[in-house]
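> run fold Succinate dehydrogenase cytochrome b556 subunit
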Amino acid sequence: MSKSPATRAVARHERPLSPHLTVYRPPITMTMSIIHRITGGALYFGTLLVAAWLIAASTSQAAFDWVNWAFGSWLGRLVLFGYTWALMHHMLGGLRHLVWDTGAWLEKHTASKIAWATLAGSIVLTLLIWIAGYMARGAL
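> ok
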């Protein structure tokens, strides 16, 4: 490339912006891959919550009551709902990758459909789990 300022100015304006975030739209398979990694990290945090609940249950009634109160608050239930979704999404994403490891469903169109199905399935399973939990408690 020429070192002339005029040439550099023209070259700078003619270069494509892609893959710039304002131009490039990430495919669903890439988005689900990123979310799969994020949910994997979130599961570490959620597992600490489960461990805290078990530790509180094994120590004293006061500790157990406090943890149950915290998990029963609106914020605690929101966190537990998110943990449930992360668990379901990560599980379905793992199953999707297991099927891909066999060489099946790797075509672009099929992979996109399965990625959308993973997202929809995780939402449906999460709602079913929470509805079943409320029904078991007699809250519904």
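The longest helix spans residues 28-59.
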